[in-house]
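The material for today's practical consists of a large collection of protein records. Read left to right, the backbone structure tokens trace the chain's path through space. An example says more than a description, so a record of this kind follows:
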Amino acid sequence: MRQPTEYTPIWLMRQAGRYLTEYKSTRARAGSFLALAKNPTFATEVTLQPLARFPLDAAILFSDILTIPDAMGLGLSFEAGEGPRFSNPLRDEADILKLTTPDLNKLRYVFDAVSEIRKALEGRVPLIGFSGSPWTLACYMVEGAGSTDLRTVKTMVYKRPDLMMHILETNAQAVGAYLNAQIEAGAQTVMVFDTWGGALADGIYQRFSLNYMQKALSNVHREWEGIRIPHIVFTKGGGQWLEDIAQTGPDAIGLDWTINLANARQQVGDRCALQGNFDPTAMLAPPEAIRAEARRLLNAYGNAPGHVFNLGHGISQFTPPENVVALVDEVHSFSRKLRQTL
């Protein structure tokens, strides 16, 4: 990481998704989101779709962050307009204490997709594998669905930290094994998405989220078949903990759109790269406004290695594809000009 480049590379969180008409077509053929995600051929097709449209600099596996708890037997389903649900959420102490890491054979469809995608890419761009963080997985596993306040899982943190730590320890072991299997199947970089870490209090975040991300990644390959495997950590809402995150040793830290990029670079220094942090909602603005905001962020980071341009969270389903064209073009062209100012 932090190698000099001719221009700032760019990829987008959720770059394969509902904003593309071709994705909607593939999903319709699959019959459901889960059928799409669990079919390696469809997953490969969807992963490659944005690369056919835009000159992006990386591919990211098309999958879902909830594959691990699904393989644990919690009964994952997706209701139209409601998002993911688990039919067997972790509420009972006996159920929690029985929780164990899943049989990775139940996740074979993910690893098969990674292999197919890597082969189809033919070395054009690197392939990123990923997992949800132990804490973010636990949020869904305990709440049973998405939540605005995470009341049930956060209450468990304070009321029964022993039970929560059992869930998190199990999840950390599972995440580490899951990411290793993705690497062995062909992923060249891995990323941990901590979507709900920012909902935690200071001190609680470090103990119940960051600690278990570090545990998970401590068991993940740093090298495979002679190739360095970068690790990326992204905590949405985690800007106040950049120093703590950097100390855990990731190769890159993902930043959401609330973080000052120049300050983040100064704070992290040369310890790791930074990824981000364009506001996804700004992608709904006219192309010239998108280009101006891209230039602002590139100037904020400055003419230096160690920046991977991305959104501060996943791309909105309402984003016009032509706006992605404008963003990618501006990042590539303007950053090339910045390199020439040396």
About this structure: The longest strand covers residues 127-132. Residues 40 and 112 are 6 Å apart (CA to CA).
